[in-house]
């Protein structure tokens, strides 16, 4: 498997795990769907083979659902020819990135990281996440997946900073939900969070880190040595 395939597998496995314990996961031919009972994440559709997109089926799923599904299309190369998605609305673009884990990172030790364990910790994490990202993940998802996914709340001098989650599959460290709440941005905290989670990933035996970055975060990760491998186009139904 190349780094793109490794990244996509970690991400879709995360969606599948959340859906299996709190909602529904189905695969019909090449189309996979991961939905939950509460909250807005993951609620995703994706094609398991990017060169086999059933555009009409995806259109029907996006238009007929009542929970706000998003279709994630993984563009794996410049010559990747895909269907015409003009019938959808582009919600966002993410950058699939990877980094070989072959060194330890020095940190400033300004931040405190608390892995969630109880109801209070879960509620704090989901509250911070919604402030950082503008949409919600249900408490139930964290409660039912915290034994396999590591969720951390982050503080600075007692003030809330943000969130991060680490999902290790075999020797692959998927870094997810790394977000800083608006009031704490511009202070270098995102870099420190990433340094912490990269060191932790190595302690857990990972040899490669993968993530999906926003346009805003991409330059930071490139400056830390990540490489861009592919694009994720997130589509929703047209209104």
Helix/strand layout:
Blueprint: H1 3-22, E1 23-28, E2 31-36, E3 44-47, H2 55-64, E4 70-75, E5 88-100, E6 112-115, H3 119-133, H4 139-145, E7 150-156, E8 159-169, E9 172-180, H5 189-203, E10 208-213, H6 215-223, E11 227-237
Parallel strand pairs: 3-4, 9-10
Antiparallel strand pairs: 1-2, 2-3, 4-11, 5-10, 5-11, 6-7, 7-8, 8-9
Helix pairs in contact: 1-4
Structural notes for this entry:
The model has no long low-confidence stretch (mean pLDDT 94). This protein has helices at 3-22, 55-64, 119-133, 139-145, 189-203, 215-223; strands at 23-28, 31-36, 44-47, 70-75, 88-100, 112-115, 150-156, 159-169, 172-180, 208-213, 227-237. The protein is 32% helix and 35% strand. The chain has an eleven-stranded mixed sheet, sandwiched between helices. It has six helices and eleven strands. It is globular. β7 (150-156) and β8 (159-169) form a beta hairpin. α1 crosses α4 (139-145). It is an alpha+beta fold and 239 residues long.
Structural class computed from helices and strand pairing: alpha+beta
Q: Strand order across the biggest sheet?
A: 1-2-3-4-11-5-10-9-8-7-6
C-alpha geometry: globular
Strand content: 25-35%
Provide the low-confidence segments as ranges. Answer: none
Essential attributes:
11 strands; 239 residues; globular; 6 helices; alpha+beta; eleven-stranded mixed beta sheet
Overview in brief:
This protein is of the alpha+beta class. Helix content is 32%, strand content 35%.
């Amino acid at each position: 498997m190349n780094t793109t395939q490794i990244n996509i597998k970690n991400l879709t496995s995360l969606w599948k795990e959340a859906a299996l314990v709190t909602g529904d996961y189905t695969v019909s031919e090449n189309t996979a769907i991961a939905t939950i009972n509460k909250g807005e994440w993951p609620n995703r559709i994706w094609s398991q083979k990017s060169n086999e997109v059933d555009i009409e089926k995806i259109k029907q799923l996006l238009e007929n659902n009542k929970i706000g599904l998003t279709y994630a299309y993984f563009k794996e190369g410049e010559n990747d020819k895909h269907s015409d998605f003009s019938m959808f609305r582009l919600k966002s673009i993410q950058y699939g990135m990877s980094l070989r884990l072959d060194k330890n990172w020095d940190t400033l030790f300004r931040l405190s990281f608390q892995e969630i364990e109880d109801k209070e910790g879960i509620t704090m994490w989901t509250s911070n996440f919604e402030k950082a990202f503008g949409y919600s993940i249900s408490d139930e998802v964290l409660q039912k997946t915290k034994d396999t996914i590591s969720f951390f709340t982050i503080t600075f001098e007692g003030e809330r900073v943000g969130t991060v989650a680490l999902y290790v599959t075999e020797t692959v460290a998927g870094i997810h939900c790394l977000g800083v709440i608006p009031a704490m941005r511009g202070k270098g905290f995102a870099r420190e969070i990433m340094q912490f989670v990269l060191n932790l990933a190595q302690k857990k035996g990972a040899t490669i880190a993968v993530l999906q970055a926003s346009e805003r975060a991409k330059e930071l990760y490139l400056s830390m040595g990540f490489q861009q491998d592919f694009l994720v186009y997130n589509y929703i139904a047209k209104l």
